[in-house]
Amino acid sequence: MSAAPLPNQIHSNPSSRPSTGSSTTGRSTINETIRVIVRLRPTLAMDGDNLNSPRYKSNAEEPTSATFITPQSMAPESSFESNISSFTPAGELTYSKHYGEETKQFKFTSCAGPDLNQADVYDSNAKDIVKGVMDGYHGTILAYGQTGSGKTYTMRGEDDNSSTKGVIPRALEEMFQMAESSSDEVTFAISYLQIYCEVIYDMLDKSNSHKVLSIREKDSNLFVENLSKIPVHSVESCMKLIREGDQNRATAATNLNAHSSRSHAALIVTVTRRKPSPKAVKNKSKATVSNLVMVDLAGSERVKQSGARFQQFEELKAINLSLSALGNCVSALAAQKAHIPYRDSKLTRLLQHTLGGNSRTAMIACCRPGNDEGGETYSTLMFARRASTVKVVAKVNEVIDYEKLYKEMQLNVDGADDNLHQLEMTVASLKLELEKSKDATAAVEAQRNTLSTRLEKLEAGFKASLAALGGEGGGEGGDLIEAIEGVSDKWQDEIESMQALHARDLEEARAKYDQKLKAYRSAANSANFDNEEVGLELEQAREGHLDTLKRCNELGEKLKEVERENGSRIAELLDEVNGKNLIIEDMEISAQKQDKLYTTKITELVSRLEELETNNVKRRDDMVSREAVLEMETLFSETVEKLMDRVNQLEGKAKDKEDEKQIKQVGKRIEQSRNENTDPQAMAMLQQMEMNMGFGGGVRAAPGGRIRKARNPRQAF
Ligand SMILES: Nc1ncnc2c1ncn2[C@@H]1O[C@H](COP(=O)(O)OP(=O)(O)OP(=O)(O)O)[C@@H](O)[C@H]1O
Q1: Residue of 50, 235, 260, 339 with fewest CB within 10 Å of its CB?
Q2: What is the pLDDT of residues 356-377, one digit of tens each?
């Protein structure tokens, strides 16, 4: 059955090959880790500016064993800064940052570059999982990666094209082929769902009612309540249903992908496999029931890059939230933590048994080439690396085939009934024959009695005739009588021998019939016994079902009770919420009042500010610019210096009146020049100079920077 290896077949990492447990009982357990295949798609026109990004090509010397980026693309002058720089089909991968200055090594189950086609990707990992499902193991195949990295292409591809069709059509083909060549009775059914904005929808719901589905748990098994499960008999009918379901899938055009999936889609194929065992009642009929879950996840993307707005923004938020919940679960599983937060999102809850549970899992981590995608590629690789360490323990899912068991028991009961009926008919016909033979014996006896009577009468007649002829036993008459008596004795002997013969025949017939009756009775008894046994088994099965039903009813009652409690708690909470709403309303009213108050205050403050600004502008207009002040300072100091010299000269000659007059004039000029100056700094300097010169404080700065004259400037002199 295994397909011939392709020329550039990727070989799986042997270290993660399953180690099978004991199979002496016919059951096997597989311990392995999640298999991870990294797929790097080719550079496409949709990558726009990134067309100049690194091109990947096979190593010319060893085209089937290694794939490398062209060495030139690692050169700093190329546009490549950070992304996958090299990888091999055996799973060794190097991620380089900053034009190859920093590198990080990864090891996965396998890697697929742009050279590898859809068949290679399927054969490398998915095929094994699919075969396992046919042997009774649950299996999961997930496509993970940023938007536009090729997840939908990998899972679905182009259905009608034999070389570009994806994992899903290939898996279905493989399963139907295996079923056809098996001697077992294999049946298939499919379900198809999507998780859009944290809500689960049935994609095969013919009524198109878009009803919201919930995940439920029963006997530690998770299932999606009311999800359609449609029996399928061929790949074509399956693909037709999937295509119809796809019409219901949420997609949209984003900056990064013209047909971007806005939801996570999961196809669940249920395989039931029964061994042909016609008389299996005593051995209990068994069947394997396994699921293959194939998931096309929605792509992660940055809000800014995607250009998402409004509804798309909400979708993106839900996608990123569930993917980060998936990342958290994988991290917790990889770290073997006690608590795994499966309940954080619908996606993780749905995949609870897949991740680290009873399911063999393969993850295809899809990456986009291109310089701008380095960051996203890196987080995909880190996620994939964590996933590759998660352990799973898968076992064959064998169940008691109640349906078959019931049918077989019914057949047995029907057979026993038929046998009993047959025996009853035989007994009735035997009874009839016995009655008939009894009648025949009675008829023979009646005949014999009639004959005896007639003989007795004849004998008596003869005896009377003889007596009339000549007395007892004398002469010829005596001879005649003797002769007649001889005849009579002969008759009597014959009659007796006939009677003995008849009695023997009768005895023999009775013995024969008794024997037959005994045989039929014992057959009837054993049939009855068988019947009772089958009835007992049926009764036990019925009691088992009744028990389950009873438990279901009890659980149902409990559920109702919980619902009632929840209902009253919800009512209480609603009351509380209503009360709080009233408080909030009050608070809102007072907040509105406060708002008004603040608005008035703010308006006042704004007008005050404007006023101040106007004043400020006026003041600024009134003020002399710094340059002018400096110029004036220089002028002042020069003038003052000159005046100081002059005053000094005059002080020496101040004894005569003329000199005194001159001093006064100089004082007046100083006073005058002081009055003309409006700059506080300049005035302060002048004041200081006057002090130094011993003139005292004739001037002072007025509030607001204006210079005011001293009340009596003369006092300065
Ligand atoms: N290996 C490949 N070879 C050729 N074309 C590819 C390959 N992988 C992806 N593509 C093309 O790239 C485009 C984006 O791929 P696809 O829609 O599968 O991405 P996606 O990861 O599912 O995106 P999203 O998360 O947005 O739904 C499609 O046009 C697809 O045909």
Answers
A1: 339
A2: 788 999 999 999 877 677 888 8
Assess whether 552 and 486 both reside in one domain: yes
Tens of pLDDT along 590-605?
888 888 888 888 888 8
- 81: in domain: no
Provide the number of structural domains found in the chain.
Answer: 3
pLDDT for res 140? 94
Distance in angstroms (rounded) separating the CA atoms of residues 320 and 318: 6
Residue 150 marked ligand-binding: yes
Better pLDDT: 4 or 668? 668
Ligand 1 atom with minimal separation from the 366 CA: 21
Mean pLDDT over residues 60-81, rounded? 46
Q: Both 614 and 636 in a single domain?
A: no
Q: Give the CATH number, domain containing residue 326.
A: 3.40.850.10
Same domain for 441 and 396: no
The tokens of 264 are what?
């996570």
Cα 170 to ligand 1 centroid, rounded to whole Å: 18
Establish if 603 belongs to a structural domain. Answer: yes
Confirm or reject: Cβ of 260 under 6 Å from ligand 1.
yes
CA 9 to ligand 1 centroid distance, Å: 22
Residue 495 lies in a domain: yes
- From 619, 648, 663, the end of a domain falls on 619
In this prediction the ipTM stands at: 0.98
Atom index in ligand 1 nearest the CA of residue 41 equals: 1
146 assigned to a ligand binding site: yes
Q: What's the rounded Cα separation, in Å, for the pair 502 and 129?
A: 83
611 in the same domain as 495: yes
Structure confidence by residue, pLDDT tens digits, 644-680 = 887 777 766 655 566 567 667 766 766 665 566 555 5
Average pLDDT, integer, range 240-252: 82
- Of 588 and 238, the one with more pLDDT: 238
Which residue range(s) make up the domain with 683? 626-716
Q: Are 568 and 704 found together in one domain?
A: no
What is the best residue among 39, 44, 195 to mutate for testing ligand 1's pocket, by most ligand atoms within 8 Å of CB? 44
414: in domain = yes
Residues 6+ apart with CB under 8 A from 154: 39, 118, 121, 143, 166, 167, 364, 366
- Measured at the CA of 519, the angle between CA 516 and CA 525, to 5 degrees, comes to 140
Shared-domain flag, residues 471 and 418: yes
Q: Any residues with CB less than 8 A from the CB of 618 and at least 6 apart, and which?
A: none
Nearest C-alpha to atom 8 of ligand 1 is from which residue? 150
Residue 22 φ then ψ, to 5°: -60, 140
Boundary residue ending a domain (400, 422, 442): 400
Q: Are residues 490 and 410 in the same domain?
A: yes
CA dist 623 and 617 (Å) reads: 10
Whole-number pLDDT of residue 385: 94
Q: Is 366's C-beta closer than 6 angstroms to any atom of ligand 1?
A: yes
Residue pair 11/90 in contact (Cβ under 8 Å)? The answer is yes
Mean pLDDT of the chain: 76
Indicate whether 392 and 432 sit together in one domain.
Answer: no
d(CA 142, CA 155): 8
How far is CA 255 from its chain centroid? 27
Neighbours of 399 (CB within 10 A): 12
Q: DSSP letter string over 616-631?
A: HHHHHHHSPPHHHHHH
